[in-house]
Amino acid sequence: MLEAPGLNLRMVRVMNIAIAIEECRKLKGITKSSLASKSGISVPYLSQIIKEQREPTLSTIEKISAALGIPSSILIFLASDESELNSVSNDLRDQIRDVAKTLIRESSEDSNNPKIPRQ
């Protein structure tokens, strides 16, 4: 990965996890306040993560993932930079991301409209 002046790999990772969290939050259709509450973190701290002002610990990423109802590995995958996935073809990477986002969105729709079990 080529780095722009003043931009380092750590900053890219913080930016990517922030984007992934915000994207998943929107796909699930939940507010920042609700996500923070379910994650056991404060709204200001979540906002700082999303604004790329704070770098979350792995423990915090796991709490946020659990609150979103997705595995932390999926959240981290969605936050992965292309250079971190150089062993995976671009087509496969894009397909996995698309499937993950579709499943996240559909899981939100399912929880908003629970199915009545057939008897």
Task: Report a brief summary of the structure.
By secondary structure, the chain is mainly α. The protein is 66% helix and 0% strand.
Task: Tell me about this structure.
This protein has a single domain, classed as 434 Repressor (Amino-terminal Domain) (Orthogonal Bundle), CATH 1.10.260.40. The longest helix is centred in the last third of the chain and has 23 residues, at 90-112. 66% of the residues lie in helices and 0% in strands. Residues 1-9 and 113-119 have low confidence and may be disordered. The protein is mainly alpha-helical and 119 residues long. It is globular. The protein has 6 helices and no strands.
Keywords, please?
119 residues, mainly alpha, 434 Repressor (Amino-terminal Domain), globular
> What's the alpha carbon Rg, rounded to whole Å?
16 Å
Q: Please state the second-level CATH architecture.
A: Orthogonal Bundle
Query: SSE order, as H and E?
Result: HHHHHH
Low confidence ranges: 1-9, 113-119
Return the domain count: 1
CATH superfamily: lambda repressor-like DNA-binding domains
Give the helix/strand class: mainly alpha
